């Protein structure tokens, strides 16, 4: 029994991280209708960025947690301005293919510059130990990452649903013409959303640096799990992404414990089952097409 | 609805990746030259390995450099009495895919007139090239791959295996650690051919040394979240946890193992590891990890001297694969010199049974019966960062496994040529 609770805790901790990692994907899709395949590459840039900052400028983990997302926010704005926006009017498939191409480019450039074996990174100071209660124990870092992720998810949700900025952003994407008629500069609000989503991928990358291999390929496998998370949660739904993040984390932990070879397959079985019963995902809105 | 459809499309695109189908023509090109001559008036050494993917750093372009060093040193040694002064080194990228390796091997042997192919990591690719070597009757010395099939069930007259194999790794790490008191093992392995083979080899050696594997935990490949696998493997408090993961998965595993808070009580043994792995993660993360090395650059003065020359060319320290590529290329040229010919059969005759002692092969011998090249192997432990005195000085050699014991006995190899 205590083993089961231990697995559950681990699943929830992983789930919080998945929720955050999928959040940017959900925001970009929910607001702009863009399926951003480059999310995994941006996540990788977040992790590689923190390792490089540490190496060349001695920026510690906590510094990277601020600097890297800002840099990726700017990079995201650049990508939106130069590339993504020109395809917004077309079928979403075009932007999907664009971001897929972008992924290949970014991954190969990082490989050229930093090789394939990965970069070193240590645990941040103060989070090396473990928190133990009774027979249960989690590493302090895992616990921190989970709580930090959930807090950030809630903040983003509040920002988009409860604030004026959030309202303008949502209105701009629901009906650009009418919003413009109300005197709001629509273009000004859409670009930052893309940057913001990319910055969130960057935060996930920085969080991943201390406990995952920092290689150019680290996002390639991860993006598939993230897609599973947003599909299960309901595309574009922030609450859905968070809930599905936890669900996937739990399924993976139980899978690892009780059916080791099938841990990853189970996630996609779950995804298939959800899509069969609720095609729009657990928290998605059915849209008339 | 449309969006769900898009996602499934997305998944399809992502899953399919870039599948390159290569259909190799198998038009046979036999050896061109008659015995006792240098074909095409030149000796061509081809390095076929991973120039851009996961094995790039541990072998890759720097192995090509190592082979070039061997050619230079060999020319300097023989000067005017060299059987040929015209020696070329060519290279190709097989991307670790057996179909590409197969096509590239044909291209190298036929069109680029390669007399020998070297390296070829990834077992499936290595076996594909062995088949080409056999068909074309040209020499092939494998370094990068681990499968014992190269000198076992699928051995042939033209194929040699120079540096290591899964038996050597299991014997060194599994056998030695068990004898030293680590009787109770749990093994976590990636669920594909390499991981399964390694687990089987380890089980054989651990059992033979009086230990046992309690849990065998398969994981998906590739995988980046090992938290619960580690908890599960540590639950019944084994003496040793063995991991058969490699590359990025190994780094994920070790990082998460360190955070599991068990590294003080349970020893971590790694099936296959290269010094480049330690370099990329940092010694502190790997400290105390035990694994088997085919060669270590800072083992003694002789190794160090070569490593210095290597560093002058590449700005990095060599892995055992780099050293082995040099040793194989140099000794191949020696055999060509002795034979006075680069024809496959003549060179094989000179290599078979040859006893070699160079900086890489200690107490080395090219076994005639199965072409396994045997030599001393080493049980290594990663030093904590505080004991690392210079860059790349990561390993402490805790035991030397004599050549005669390190490799699978001929009687068990199952090779008939």
TrEMBL record, chain A:
<dbReference type="InterPro" id="IPR001851">
    <property type="entry name" value="ABC_transp_permease"/>
</dbReference>
<keyword id="KW-1003">Cell membrane</keyword>
<comment type="similarity">
    <text>Belongs to the binding-protein-dependent transport system permease family. LivHM subfamily.</text>
</comment>
<keyword id="KW-1133">Transmembrane helix</keyword>
<feature type="transmembrane region" description="Helical">
    <location>
        <begin position="223"/>
        <end position="250"/>
    </location>
</feature>
<feature type="transmembrane region" description="Helical">
    <location>
        <begin position="12"/>
        <end position="39"/>
    </location>
</feature>
<dbReference type="GO" id="GO:0005886">
    <property type="term" value="C:plasma membrane"/>
</dbReference>
<keyword id="KW-0029">Amino-acid transport</keyword>
<dbReference type="Pfam" id="PF02653">
    <property type="entry name" value="BPD_transp_2"/>
</dbReference>
<feature type="transmembrane region" description="Helical">
    <location>
        <begin position="141"/>
        <end position="160"/>
    </location>
</feature>
<keyword id="KW-0472">Membrane</keyword>
<feature type="transmembrane region" description="Helical">
    <location>
        <begin position="59"/>
        <end position="79"/>
    </location>
</feature>
<feature type="transmembrane region" description="Helical">
    <location>
        <begin position="262"/>
        <end position="283"/>
    </location>
</feature>
<feature type="transmembrane region" description="Helical">
    <location>
        <begin position="189"/>
        <end position="211"/>
    </location>
</feature>
<protein>
    <submittedName>
        <fullName>ABC transporter permease</fullName>
    </submittedName>
</protein>
<dbReference type="GO" id="GO:0022857">
    <property type="term" value="F:transmembrane transporter activity"/>
</dbReference>
<dbReference type="InterPro" id="IPR052157">
    <property type="entry name" value="BCAA_transport_permease"/>
</dbReference>
<keyword id="KW-0812">Transmembrane</keyword>
<feature type="transmembrane region" description="Helical">
    <location>
        <begin position="86"/>
        <end position="107"/>
    </location>
</feature>
<dbReference type="GO" id="GO:0006865">
    <property type="term" value="P:amino acid transport"/>
</dbReference>
<keyword id="KW-0813">Transport</keyword>
């Amino acid at each position: 029994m205590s083993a089961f609770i231990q697995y559950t805790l681990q699943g929830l901790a992983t789930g919080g991280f998945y929720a955050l990692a999928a959040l940017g994907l959900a925001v970009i899709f929910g607001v702009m209708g863009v399926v951003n395949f480059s999310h995994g590459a941006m996540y990788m840039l977040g992790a590689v960025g923190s390792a490089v900052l540490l190496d060349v400028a001695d920026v510690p983990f906590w510094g990277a947690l601020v600097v890297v997302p800002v840099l990726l926010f700017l990079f995201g704005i650049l990508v939106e301005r130069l590339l993504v926006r020109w395809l917004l009017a077309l079928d979403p498939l075009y932007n999907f293919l664009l971001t897929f191409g972008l992924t290949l480019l970014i991954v190969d450039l990082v490989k050229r510059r930093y090789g394939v074996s990965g970069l070193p990174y240590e645990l941040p100071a103060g989070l090396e130990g473990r928190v133990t209660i009774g027979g249960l124990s989690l590493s302090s870092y895992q616990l921190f990452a989970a709580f930090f992720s959930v807090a950030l998810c809630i903040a983003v949700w509040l920002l988009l649903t409860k604030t004026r900025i959030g309202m303008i952003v949502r209105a701009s994407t629901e009906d650009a013409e009418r919003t413009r008629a109300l005197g709001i500069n629509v273009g000004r609000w859409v670009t930052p959303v893309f940057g913001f989503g990319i910055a969130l991928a960057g935060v996930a990358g920085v969080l991943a640096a201390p406990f995952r291999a920092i290689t150019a390929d680290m996002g390639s496998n991860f993006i598939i799990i993230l897609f599973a998370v947003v599909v299960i949660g309901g595309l574009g739904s922030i609450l859905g992404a968070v809930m599905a993040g936890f669900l996937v984390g739990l399924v993976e932990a139980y899978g690892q414990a009780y059916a080791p070879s099938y841990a990853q397959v189970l996630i996609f079985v779950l995804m298939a089952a959800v899509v069969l019963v609720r095609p729009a995902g657990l928290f998605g809105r059915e849209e008339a097409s | 609805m449309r969006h769900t459809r898009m996602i499934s499309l997305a998944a399809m695109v992502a899953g399919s990746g870039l599948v390159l189908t290569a259909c190799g023509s198998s038009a046979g090109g036999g050896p061109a030259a008659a015995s006792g001559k240098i074909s095409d008036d030149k000796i061509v050494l081809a390095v076929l390995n991973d120039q851009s993917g996961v094995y790039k750093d541990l072998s890759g372009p720097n192995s090509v450099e190592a082979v070039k060093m061997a050619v230079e040193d060999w020319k300097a040694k023989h000067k005017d009495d060299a059987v040929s002064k015209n020696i070329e080194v060519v290279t190709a990228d097989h991307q670790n895919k057996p179909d590409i390796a197969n096509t590239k091997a044909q291209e190298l042997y036929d069109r680029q007139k390669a007399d020998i192919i070297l390296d070829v990591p990834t077992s499936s690719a290595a076996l594909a090239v062995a088949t080409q070597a056999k068909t074309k009757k040209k020499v092939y010395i494998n370094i990068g791959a681990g499968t014992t099939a190269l000198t076992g069930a699928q051995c042939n007259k033209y194929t040699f295996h120079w540096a290591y194999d899964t038996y050597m790794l299991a014997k060194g790490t599994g056998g030695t650690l068990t004898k030293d008191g680590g009787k109770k093992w749990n093994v976590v392995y990636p669920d594909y051919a390499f991981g399964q083979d390694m687990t089987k080899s380890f089980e054989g050696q651990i059992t033979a040394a009086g230990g046992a594997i309690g849990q065998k935990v398969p994981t998906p490949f590739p995988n980046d979240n090992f938290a619960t696998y580690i908890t599960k493997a540590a639950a019944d408090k084994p003496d040793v946890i063995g991991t058969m993961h490699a590359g990025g998965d190994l780094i994920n595993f070790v990082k998460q193992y360190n955070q599991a808070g068990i590294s003080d009580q349970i020893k971590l043994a790694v099936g296959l590891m290269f010094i480049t792995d330690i370099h990329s993660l940092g010694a502190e993360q790997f400290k105390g990890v035990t694994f088997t090395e085919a060669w270590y650059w800072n083992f003694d003065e002789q190794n160090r001297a070569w490593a210095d020359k290597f560093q002058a060319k590449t700005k990095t320290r060599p892995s055992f694969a780099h050293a082995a590529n040099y040793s194989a290329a140099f000794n191949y040229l020696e055999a060509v010199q002795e034979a006075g010919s680069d024809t496959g059969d003549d060179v094989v005759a000179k290599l078979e049974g040859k006893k070699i002692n160079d900086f890489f092969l200690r107490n080395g011998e090219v076994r005639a019966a199965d072409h396994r090249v045997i030599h001393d192997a080493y049980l290594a432990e990663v030093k904590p960062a505080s004991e690392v005195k210079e860059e790349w000085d990561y390993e402490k050699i805790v035991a030397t496994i004599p050549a005669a014991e390190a490799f699978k006995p001929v009687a068990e190899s199952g090779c008939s040529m």
